[in-house]
Amino acid sequence: MECSTWRSVSIIILFTILSFVGSGYSQQAERYSFLNQAAEAPITSYYDYIIIGGGTAGCPLAATLSHNYKVLLLERGDSPYSNKNVSNLMNFPDTLADTSPTSAAQRFVSEDGVINSRARVLGGGSCLNAGFYTRASPNYVREAGWDGRLANESYEWVEKVVVFEPTMPKWQTALRNGLLEVGITPFNGFTYDHEFGTKIGGTIFDGDGNRHTAADLLEYANPEGLNVLLHARVSRILFKIEGRVRPKAYGVIFWDQYGKRHKAYLNQGADNEIIVSAGALGSPQLLMMSGVGPRDQLEALNISVVLDQQMVGQGMSDNPMNAIFVPSPNPVATTLIQVVGITKFGCFIEGASGSNFIISGSNFTGGTPGRNFGMFSPQTGQLATVPPKERTPEAIARAVEAMNSLEESHFQGGFILEKIRGPISTGFLKLKNRNIDDNPSVTFNYFKEPIDLERCVRGIQTIERIIKSPGFSNFTYSDLQMGTLLNISTRFPVNTLPRSSEDTRSPEQYCRDTVMTIWHYHGGCQVGQVVDLDYKVFGTDALRVVDGSTFRFSPGTNPQATVMMLGRYMGVRIQNERLARQRAARET
Ligand SMILES: Cc1cc2nc3c(=O)[nH]c(=O)nc-3n(C[C@H](O)[C@H](O)[C@H](O)COP(=O)(O)OP(=O)(O)OC[C@H]3O[C@@H](n4cnc5c(N)ncnc54)[C@H](O)[C@@H]3O)c2cc1C
Ligand SMILES: *[C@@H]1O[C@H](CO)[C@@H](O)[C@H](O)[C@H]1NC(C)=O
Ligand SMILES: *[C@@H]1O[C@H](CO)[C@@H](O)[C@H](O)[C@H]1NC(C)=O
Ligand SMILES: *[C@@H]1O[C@H](CO)[C@@H](O)[C@H](O)[C@H]1NC(C)=O
Ligand SMILES: *[C@@H]1O[C@H](CO)[C@@H](O)[C@H](O)[C@H]1NC(C)=O
Ligand SMILES: *[C@@H]1O[C@H](CO)[C@@H](O)[C@H](O)[C@H]1NC(C)=O
Ligand SMILES: *[C@@H]1O[C@H](CO)[C@@H](O)[C@H](O)[C@H]1NC(C)=O
């Protein structure tokens, strides 16, 4: 009796939570009382923690610290809740395609020539991404020096609010079957865990295709302890230098959308801190702009050197992605990533299917004009039919035009992609100027290390076998119909396998020519190089970096789970350690 009462109570609570969580974005323009515009902020203000970057790590970190401290979260972008491009799976390409200064995505092109994107919105990359959610392996967690139990608790904290089990359309099921048939076994079912074999992962899109993001983790915040400022562009961290052995961060300068300058300072208190969570491009960029970085680079830009730190901006990596379009004789639903094959040879195989059609007069709310291939649309910068350095705006325009002249049936199909584990190849980031709104220059050196290239080649060969596997047969043309396929592909701005007689490229060259990004770039403030195991910036006081810039390798098959986990994890650790110090101080 008592037990069943409890059960119905908890079912009611569950429904209340679910209906709250699932209630959609449209009516939530002002979802939180603590969301404010930077322009409304005073010229100077004081906080216990100032977090720079309301992204995938910054939001869970701020939510956690707000329970015991006064926290300021500074985000340069807008709220995701009023942005239709962010809110639904079908709109995936729209934000990436929007290159205006108000877009939630800021396009950048690496020196390698690959077109890429970084977030400029509360919730960060989780507002732009393909939604796939999967944890790091226990081995990765161990090597990162994280406490396994707290890491698991932190993953669970995230999963309760933003992660869902996907419903599997036939195309994704066929991909799963193909992966198993080519030997990427066992089948591990639906799981967040990272294990060899094939699995179905979580997704931050709910059953209606609505996106749930790191900004939703602010639900956990204590509204009394948190102020989130939107359109707050931080241009500099301020350091006390005089009379100190180590420079100590004590405040920040930020600009509102009307170009007015504000300052926020740390309250008095030995434990108060500034935490940089501005992402893999933003964090090293901001450290350098603030005088922490390689002396020669800073001096060349007249930035006064606070700390000569040669490793800031080093160790930048972007996992190469190569993808193959597989035209289907049967209709396919639009899906982003749901299934992954985790191979033993160091590559992850995933897929996305379908396409979007913006038909004027329809009730579709997306903005990308014309037809597109979802995740692999030239409009978003993904154009693998020409080598990286030839992906000019003109080349993109030609591809878009070619696509718009195709019949709808030509879009029927899906992409099977491979991402290289790691990667081992690394590059570097440099400032171009002292404008925080501009992208720094970044070089990823895709495939510089031979092992990355070998893994790509094996990945492409594996995809070829998947396409030929019986399990995938409903969604590909048979060998007999390959002529049709090739005929289609010569007119398509997408890649197919390098099998035509004209394509004499080696598999290695094919990998280099068709490399794209899966947007998992990381590094620049790596643990052991720029920050210590507590994420404190070496050689400074009261300053940490907590985000994807601290990673040496991309965690799991896809990183967002671990980035969100890390925000929560570090929030709990910082708070617990501080409370323990206070207790110890009281006892003595
Ligand atoms: C298109 C795309 C698809 C992806 N697909 C997946 C996927 O399916 N699964 C997956 O796991 N991962 C995916 N990822 C990767 C994942 O989303 C990112 O690795 C992750 O979001 C990075 O988190 P972060 O906290 O390091 O940086 P971000 O989330 O980018 O956060 C940085 C924040 O800091 C802000 N900021 C930067 N500079 C300043 C400044 N000076 N002042 C104020 N604010 C500033 C930015 O606006 C941003 O909000 C994808 C990413 C993209 C872009
Ligand atoms: C959505 O995307 C479209 C096309 O990319 C763009 O024109 C529009 O301004 C975007 N809307 C918002 C709210 O950012
Ligand atoms: C964390 O969870 C994973 C499963 O997701 C498990 O394999 C691992 O042992 C757990 N670690 C600890 C320390 O409990
Ligand atoms: C740096 O300062 C010097 C002297 O004021 C000036 O000549 C030079 O142009 C400046 N360089 C940059 C990159 O601003
Ligand atoms: C329009 O809305 C209806 C009902 O919600 C839906 O079934 C249909 O797929 C939508 N059409 C488009 C083009 O989005
Ligand atoms: C192909 O599709 C048909 C019709 O839906 C189905 O019966 C069959 O099982 C599918 N084949 C495979 C290999 O999945
Ligand atoms: C190739 O496509 C063109 C244009 O659609 C068509 O005329 C031709 O018959 C096709 N050839 C083959 C071999 O399918």
Automatic annotation (TrEMBL):
UniProt-recorded name of the protein: Protein HOTHEAD-like protein
Binding site for FAD: 121, 234, 519-520, 548, 559-560
The keyword Cytoplasm appears for this protein: no
InterPro entries: FAD/NAD-bd_sf, GMC_Oxidoreductase-Related, GMC_OxRdtase, GMC_OxRdtase_N, GMC_OxRtase_C
Signal sequence segment: 1-26
Keyword Hydrolase: no
Family: Belongs to the GMC oxidoreductase family.
Organism (species): Carex littledalei
